[in-house]
Design goal:
Helix content is about 30%, strand content about 35%. The protein is built from six helices and seven strands. InterPro entries: Acyl_CoA_acyltransferase, GNAT_dom.
Length: about 180
C-alpha cells in the first residue's frame, strides 16, 4: 500500500506495508530473539526458526482468523525497514493494539511515522477498526513521541507494568479513535 497524498510531507519517507515472506525469516528470528525488546512487549522467550517459519507459512493476515496482522515495512528501495503489528484484536469493540519495530539503522529518519500513517489508514479503511492503542514504556521517549505526533492521546499509566528481569517500569497507554 502506498502513502495517501494527504499524509505525505516533504520530510516523510515513502514506505510500503506488505505481508511477511519466507525471506524475512532471518530478520524476524533476530528481532524475536533480541532480549533488548523483550521488556517492551509480551514476549520473554526465544523463538526457534521452525516456529517462526511455521508462523510465516500459516499466517493468513486475516485479523478475524489470526487475531492479529503483522506487516513488513519497506522503503522505496524495497529494503526491510521494520514491522508493524496490529494485535489483541477485539471484534466486538473494533479495537486492537499496535506496535512497531524499526531496524536501528533506519530509526529517527521518519520511517516509523510513515509506517504508522499507513497502519492507521489500513486499520480504518481495510480492517474497519474504531480505535488503536499502544502500551509504551514510560522511558521509551522515541515511541512516546512517535505516537503523540500521530495524535494518539495518553489515557492511563500502568504502574510497574513491564519487567526487564531486574526492575519494573511504568507503561503509558496511548489511544487513537480512528
Amino acid at each position: 500500500m502506498n502513502t495517501p497524498p494527504d499524509t505525505v510531507t516533504t520530510n516523510t519517507p515513502r514506505v510500503a506495508l506488505r505481508a511477511m515472506e519466507p525471506e524475512d525469516l532471518d530478520w524476524l528470528y533476530a528481532v524475536e530473539n533480541n532480549r533488548e525488546v523483550w521488556n517492551v512487549g509480551n514476549t520473554n522467550v526465544p523463538y526457534s526458526r521452525y516456529v517462526l517459519h511455521d508462523y510465516i507459512a500459516n499466517a493468513t493476515n486475516d485479523i478475524y482468523n489470526d487475531g492479529q496482522v503483522r506487516l513488513i515495512v519497506e522503503n522505496e528501495e524495497h529494503e526491510l525497514i521494520g514491522m508493524v503489528d496490529v494485535f489483541d484484536f477485539n471484534a466486538q469493540h473494533r479495537r486492537a493494539e499496535v506496535s512497531i519495530v524499526v531496524r536501528k539503522e533506519y530509526r529517527r529518519k521518519g520511517y516509523a511515522a510513515a509506517a504508522i500513517d499507513q497502519i492507521l489508514d489500513y486499520s480504518l479503511h481495510i480492517l474497519h477498526l474504531h480505535q488503536l492503542y499502544a502500551v509504551v514504556a514510560e522511558d521509551n521517549e522515541a515511541s512516546l513521541a512517535l505516537f503523540l505526533k500521530k495524535n494518539f492521546q495518553t489515557h492511563n499509566r500502568l504502574k510497574e507494568w513491564l519487567f526487564d528481569g531486574v526492575k519494573y517500569t511504568d507503561a503509558i497507554v496511548l489511544q487513537k479513535i480512528l
